[in-house]
Amino acid sequence: MLKFSLNNCRPAGRSNFSGATIACSLSFFFLISVVAVYYLFLLSSGDFQIFAPENLDQAFNNMLLHLLHGEFTVDRGAIGYEAFTRDGKTYAYFGIFPAVLRLLAIPVTNLAQAHLARLSCLTATVIFIALQLRMLLIVHSSLPAASRRPEFLAVMMTATVLSGPQLYLLGVAWIYHEPILWSAAMGAAFNLIIVRRTFIGKSLRSQDLILLALLAGLAINTRPSIGVALYLGTMLLVLWTVWYRYTRIYTAQQLLSKGGWLLSTILPSIAILSLGAVVVGIVNFERWGNAFTFADFRYWDMRVNVFPNLIEIIHNYGEFGLGRIWIGALYYSTDIPYLLKVIPPFAEFLRARVVELDSPPSTPVLTNPLTIILAGIGLYRVWWKPELSTQSVAVLRLSLLAHASTVVLILAAMAFSLRYRFDFAPFMSLAALVGYGSVSRAMTEACQAWQKRMRMAAIGLCFLGVLFSHYELLLYKIYCWVVPINVRLSLLPFAPFARYVFHR
């Protein structure tokens, strides 16, 4: 199917363009449909119920009902243990996009009783995967004919669908995952715009910048860690586009004649970014009394009993502290801090600086080996050995720098969690796409023996990622206390070392 899709997506003439495009679209739609069914199987633990109840799944429903009345509070019964209490009122710190998205469900269901968390998480994940695959096909099609390796593309598509953080986040559809999954989808859409222009050597158009600004505005109202990166990326790319165009203008008359283009390029993007910032500023002000505060943990109910040292950690090291970056890097790459968190003297050191080191243990070296290697190659190529045009490389560099701000925020945060790994996806996937193109070109110049070794290595790394990503999903379901107990117990024989989590 993959070979059929590729060959037919590059028609030789106008006469067969429509038929080839339809065939390609149908093949892609069929693939995404199969992925959606499989993901629902994983998310529902095999029962395929998409409207089943999930932990805190009424929170976003309730948030929307309050927003429709001009209120920024939530009912305590809906938000439960994640409540923030300020001036006698109950608030949530989550972005409002997942709640606003439920406007689509109002005509067909009673929002006060509907269970929409699984549908929302599944939809966001499938959109993310569809965008990732689309970018992969664009990069593949941009390669010289001799460098297009269908077998390598098949390996990459398999790794994209069946391994990575999105797979083990399908362990449960609770309130934390919705904004993470939707913001990752927005980051992938952002990258798609970048990839579509850079890999064909074209400059960003005004409509591209408008779409980037729109995605940034949505992301900042979904998950700030991704939203900040998309805001930074959009602003950098707007400035770059203006500078790139106007360095080619040499006379005052030409400058004046291009003034309309300048306004049409900058103003719509800035207006959209401003609107997104105003919306999130209003929400933040109504919740915390400060437009620049996304969450005020002084009002968090759980800080009293669950995290009694939270305020002290914030006071000493901040909610985001550069001194924690090395701890975060170790946690997200090797999970060593998690393994040491109960062993003196490391336990005391970590407890004084980090609010939470979440389980289960994991390492992307096993769940994402192919992505990590290709991302490393991609970063090397973008910064030291560029293979694309100067213009394309500049856009890729600015985009990666913007995404890197998310990486820094997550590594410096006061809490580390397995689910936060998905915030790395926009940075890692964009770099890996560059690496994929570079490796594909290199394979053309390699001898047959090296090509065979590289194919076997790619297949082996893909298999390793698929295997351990699924095992991580299994562990996530066992460790996650909101997963039904019968599901957790049924999976326990596959991870007997996790038995202790049932006695904590």
What does this structure look like?
With 504 residues, this protein is mainly α. The protein has one domain (2-10, 19-57, 115-290, 309-503). The protein has 24 helices and four strands. It has helices at 2-8, 17-43, 59-67, 76-79, 97-101, 117-142, 150-162, 165-168, 177-198, 206-220, 224-246, 252-257, 259-288, 302-305, 310-317, 325-334, 336-340, 346-351, 364-367, 369-383, 390-412, 425-445, 448-479, 485-491; strands at 84-86, 89-91, 356-357, 415-416. Strands 1-2 form a two-stranded antiparallel sheet. α1 (2-8) packs antiparallel against α2. The radius of gyration is 24 Å and the shape is globular.
Notable traits:
24 helices, mainly alpha, globular, 4 strands, two-stranded antiparallel sheet, disordered N terminus, single chain, two-stranded parallel sheet, 65% helix, 504 residues
In short:
By secondary structure, this protein is mostly helical.
List the SSEs and their pairings.
Elements: H1 2-8, H2 17-43, H3 59-67, H4 76-79, E1 84-86, E2 89-91, H5 97-101, H6 117-142, H7 150-162, H8 165-168, H9 177-198, H10 206-220, H11 224-246, H12 252-257, H13 259-288, H14 302-305, H15 310-317, H16 325-334, H17 336-340, H18 346-351, E3 356-357, H19 364-367, H20 369-383, H21 390-412, E4 415-416, H22 425-445, H23 448-479, H24 485-491
Parallel strand pairs: 3-4
Antiparallel strand pairs: 1-2
Helix pairs in contact: 1-2, 2-6, 6-7, 6-9, 6-22, 7-23, 9-10, 9-21, 9-22, 10-11, 10-13, 11-13, 11-21, 16-21, 20-22, 21-22, 23-24
